[in-house]
Specification:
Layout (H helix, E strand, L loop, with lengths): L1 E11 L4 E10 L4 E9 L2 E8 L3 E8 L7 E2 L3 E3 L2 E4 L2 E8 L1 H4 L8 E8 L1 H6 L15 E12 L4 E11 L2 E9 L11 E2 L14 E19 H4 L8 E21 L4 E4 L4 E14 L2 E10 L3 E11 L1
Parallel strand pairs: 14-17
Antiparallel strand pairs: 1-2, 1-10, 3-4, 4-9, 5-6, 5-8, 5-10, 7-9, 11-12, 11-20, 12-13, 13-15, 15-16, 16-17, 16-18, 18-19, 19-20
Length: 304
């Protein structure tokens, strides 16, 4: 599903580009008749497309021996490019690198159907001069507030590729006190296993933890929006894991008793929305522990 062409590119500078184009091989029927020429500071790649496809342009040279993805491209490139003749892709070399020197440059026009886009292995996920690809990595400072006035903090880390990705997150208030011998009381302070109501000191502690993992869907990437759009990402996340919210009461003899009516331990689920503008990433959502204890989640970080 790809066509490869070779050129010799001695030097790309601001005013001129010297190109000598030579077809190397045609490896598929989707993209054909590929030509390369210079127009001012840009490189124009012209080709014919036989059917609706997802189109990418790759490059290799003596400087980058493996095929790597070009990012500074526009025109008939990206997702769901319609079939036609003399379609044009414009590559802006100076946006990839201010000064690119290489010999034996080869271009590859890759035109894949929806199934092939995800089923076939990729040669490389890098870009030609170290720029962005459609693989995104994000890390966020993660916080949550509950209506019981508990707060917790942590991190959220994940990646997306072609609009679909994963994440892991963890939060805590960094108080890991647990009930002594697993003792739990009811709303009156009565401990059923002890058949008694102890004397309480009045001191309380709250311990909060939530650890989740799940999926991320980026609607901008899935919708085939331009990579030059200032909104890098806008989508949703959803996942599940394990967590707890424990309210502990201290007795006069130094034991800690878990207050059963508002303590929760078990399945943790979360979901929300996230978006990034020029890399600055925000998220907002909610988390529930045992489907009873509700927390509002927020986060801020960076996507790169």
């Amino acid at each position: 599903m790809q066509s490869v062409y070779t050129i010799t590119m001695k030097r790309i500078i601001f005013y001129s580009i010297l190109l000598f184009c030579l077809p190397l091989s045609l490896l598929a029927d989707n993209a054909s008749n590929v030509r390369v020429r210079q127009r001012n500071k840009d490189i124009i790649i012209t080709y014919d497309l036989s059917k609706l496809s997802n189109v990418q342009v790759w490059i290799t040279s003596d400087k980058t021996p493996d095929f790597v993805l070009l990012n500074a491209v526009e025109g008939a490139v990206g997702k769901r490019v319609r079939s036609g003749q003399d379609l044009e892709i414009v590559w802006h070399p100076l946006e990839e690198s201010e000064d690119f020197i290489a010999d034996n440059v080869r271009f590859k026009v890759e035109a894949l159907g929806s199934y092939e886009q995800y089923a076939l292995p990729k040669t490389s996920r890098k870009t030609a001069m170290g720029g962005k690809t459609n693989m995104e990595t994000f890390i966020l400072l993660n916080g949550a507030f509950a209506f019981t006035k508990d707060m917790s903090y942590g991190l959220m880390l994940g990646q997306t590729y072609s609009g679909i990705g994963w994440y892991i997150s963890g939060r805590s208030n960094f108080s890991f006190q647990s009930a002594t011998d697993g003792l739990t009381c009811d709303k009156t302070g009565y401990i059923e296993t002890e058949d008694a109501i102890p004397f309480y000191s009045g001191r309380k502690q709250v311990s909060v933890l939530a650890a989740n993992a799940g999926i991320v869907l980026d609607f901008i990437e899935l919708g085939g929006a331009s990579p030059r759009n200032r909104f890098n990402t806008f989508g949703i996340y959803a996942g599940a894991g394990y967590g707890w919210r424990r309210l502990l009461w201290e007795t006069m003899d130094g034991k800690w008793i878990e207050y059963g009516p508002t303590s929760r331990t078990g399945v943790s689920v979360n979901a929300g929305v996230m978006g990034s503008v020029y890399g600055l990433t925000l998220k907002a959502g909610m988390n529930m522990i045992q489907f009873k204890h509700l927390e509002i989640e927020v986060g801020i970080g960076w996507m790169f």
